[in-house]
Structure to design on (610 residues):
């Protein structure tokens, strides 16, 4: 079923306590493409500058992704650089150059109007609304956001995005900021009260929780022995989640739970290498194996007291 | 099957951002008794002073617990007071008066020597060793510890306790301190290398993880809407875990997983009230219901890619 992502494509410079990489492929749409190419080819709306390497374009297009909506404009591509601390969780941003991303206006090609599964990565909420207005009949909209937009200037647009979302994907800090509730159950309920059908709260190495009318589902984080680069974990989670839904064209509660596991699997794979490198050679069998490992991680037989 | 706990009985004064209680029943052995009374009556080795209220003695004895090993000596009972911060996780200790606990030497009544399931709550490692020397043929020893004992003066005794434990129960911070490894998989492996059969790492609101030869099992934390008093969560976890093992007399890997869930359930129940109050009226059916809720929380059907 047709899948669409709107987000960023960037050149990242990433430093960890162990290694350093310069100008590697990054951005939410890039991670989304890398994962979706494996599960359910995606349409892409994003912007790059005229300095964007052709090899990255090929990577974005792999697996049958449709790049008609990838705008290539004069100027430099969005650049971000950051450094991860010893715990490989906290990071400091060293530099952000929005460049061509600063004036990005998502324009959907006419052929994208019939998209059914939509991932609105973290961009200005008013632009997320613009995207939704260009789609005829979305079946499942998932929206991401960030603390920058949970402010007076943007909160009304953000609330309208949430009200039009089947899935809101936030991390625990954003959930608390958005709701004003410290308790995550309360926070999720208050976000659902804004009109979302369900909320996913990403909790880093504590996993991700899905709150919906069926109750709560907890997907653990995969206990990795070595994290190489945490960048893109959240976007790879969203990509696995949405691409699995699109692949199966099933938004039932039971399938949402499976999609949470696929997303957790792709999120855990993403951090095993820099950039989108882990997905360059990943096979469906290997992804299936990781999903199976998640099942092993939480499985227990009935308890009779 | 015979179950034994060695630990502390205290009078706690607890302050949360919402409420305050003075001199309520606390201590690892008290929480253990409250939980075990429901699942598998326990033998108790602990000490109280001559000021210890008779009503608390009755509570410790409830459910058929055997208090022959409860020493009642001249002096004041161990007292602890602390204050929880806004997040209901971090706390500051306001006062600790060891009193009669300072000179506590665990003396097992002869009738306890045939105990099979042993929980060594957090006390001086050399005393934990003394306890083990008084037991004929333990089947399953679970030991808890804390940062105080992970120091030069005590580490050798602690390592001997670990080598004689079928289960080491620590929190994430203790696991890292004990192993010198930040990664929890590495940390657990290094503790197992000291001679423990398996390690449980308690991670607060991220749940608890069991590391053994079968791999890793992750029991989530129950998403509570309201925590009344976090005190005793860890001891109630250990109590549910050990009392379930003793009740079923089964230390197979599959039963360890079920015990992790029962422990997570009793841990989650403990924090819904001050002191051991939640267990005063709790029924087996209600505990079963909570275990069932854990199953709902993590259940997903097979994923075919």
């Amino acid at each position: 079923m047709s899948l669409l992502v709107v987000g960023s494509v960037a050149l990242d410079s990433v430093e960890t306590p162990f290694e350093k990489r310069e100008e590697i492929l990054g951005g939410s749409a890039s991670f989304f493409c890398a994962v979706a190419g494996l599960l359910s080819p995606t349409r892409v709306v994003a912007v790059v500058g005229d300095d964007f390497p052709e090899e990255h374009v090929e990577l974005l297009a792999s697996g049958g992704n449709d790049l008609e909506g990838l705008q290539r404009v004069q100027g430099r591509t969005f650049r971000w650089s950051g450094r991860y601390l010893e715990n490989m969780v906290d990071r400091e941003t060293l530099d952000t150059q929005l460049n061509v991303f600063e004036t990005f206006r998502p324009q959907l090609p006419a052929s994208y109007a019939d998209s059914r599964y939509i991932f609105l990565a973290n961009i200005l909420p008013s632009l997320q609304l613009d995207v939704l207005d260009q789609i005829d009949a979305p079946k499942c909209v998932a929206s991401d956001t960030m603390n920058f937009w949970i402010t007076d200037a943007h909160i009304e647009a953000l609330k309208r995005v949430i009200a039009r979302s089947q899935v809101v994907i936030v991390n625990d800090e954003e959930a608390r900021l958005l709701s004003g509730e410290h308790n995550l159950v309360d926070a999720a309920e208050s976000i659902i009260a804004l009109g979302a059908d369900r909320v996913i709260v990403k909790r880093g190495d504590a996993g991700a929780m899905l709150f919906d009318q069926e109750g709560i589902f907890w997907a653990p984080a995969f206990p990795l022995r070595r994290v190489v680069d945490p960048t893109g974990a959240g976007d790879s989670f969203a990509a696995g989640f949405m691409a699995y839904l699109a692949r199966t064209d099933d938004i039932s509660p039971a399938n949402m739970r499976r999609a949470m596991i696929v997303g957790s699997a792709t999120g855990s794979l993403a951090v095993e290498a820099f950039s989108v490198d882990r997905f360059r050679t990943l096979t469906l069998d290997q992804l299936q194996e990781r999903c199976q490992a998640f099942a092993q991680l939480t499985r227990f037989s009935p308890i009779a007291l």
Remarks:
- The CA atoms of residues 200 and 210 of chain A lie 4 Å apart.
- The longest strand of chain A covers residues 20-26.
- Chain A has one domain: 3-298.
